[in-house]
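[09:14] KT: can someone run the structure on this one? pasting the chain below
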Amino acid sequence: MTVLRTALSRQTLPLKPNLRAMSRPRSLSTSSSSSITASEAASQMLHTFQDKTIVRKQILDGNQLQKLCLTLGRRYGLGPQLDLTLGCPPNGTPVPPGYHLVYFTPSELEEDLGADGTDRTFNAPAPFTRRMWAGGNMRWNDGTELRVGEQVEEHTKLIAAVAKKSRDGSEMVLVEVNKEFWGERGLALVDQRSWIFRKEIDLSTITASTKSPLGPPPQGKSQVRDVVVGDNPLPDRVFKWSPAALFRFSALTFNAHMIHYNESWTRDVENHPGVVVHGPLNLINMLDYWRDVHRVEGSVLEEISYKATAPIYTGEEYTMSSSKMNTDYGMFEVLVKKGDQVCMTGHISEASSWSY
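[09:31] RB: done, structure tokens below
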């Protein structure tokens, strides 16, 4: 097995020994790329990444965690005694579920990014270069949470690449990547991500007649508020994100994907009516919603599976709600809806068997 490391590493045991280790490419290319099929692209990825892995090391600094909380509007997001507008959290502060997404960010030069601004780590070969975050799964180990100030290892493997068809019949490639995060107390988190790669767009075909109509510019600042609907004792959470908030989140995650900040690209090339809210941002929102609404003393987050089904745009108001899926154990379904349209779903499981 080939192992690529960005720093000196320690020995660790894999979570699942039957998972094949994969590697990070400099680039993927193929002759006659314009005629390559999705099935051929998937096969090429599997062949290229077989028996290889990437290991990166990073010290989890408090500044990054502070700035994420401020972007989310969570002034006291790490505890009622810590005002994050006054300073960073101290070493030893636990990193809340999902907040690891602002660490281990892409490290490519700008010249190595795709045409749409995405990093090309584990990208499918051309012409399947348009990436969208489709969903995934996270699993936590109790007692091994990541903490500010500790050095953490990220182990990344490609675990699947499969040809798929979209609703309109066009080809695409579904790629699944597995990330393990090892802290000073052992394996803390397994983060599996699913990306969809669609065919690239020929920019020379973009004309005034093909551009989407420009909607009104987003007004006001971001909003996050809880509302009680009917007799439901659990509040819904209402969100609206401003362009400034999306810019901050893109900067924190070092994500140059232009659909999140470049309105001309988003509208004229990708055919969206506005700048797109990040899928990972709503994933963090789901986990914060669980912490604020459902967590009780003694409950421990074990797993979340999630799927993005429709885009949300800056300035749009949308709602997050939940329902309990099991009367004896902590299992919840979280829905993200824009009006009647479901835009994202999540299923959260707790490790303890609390009944409430």
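[09:33] KT: thanks! Residues 18 and 158 are 13 Å apart (CA to CA).
[09:34] RB: yep, looked fine to me
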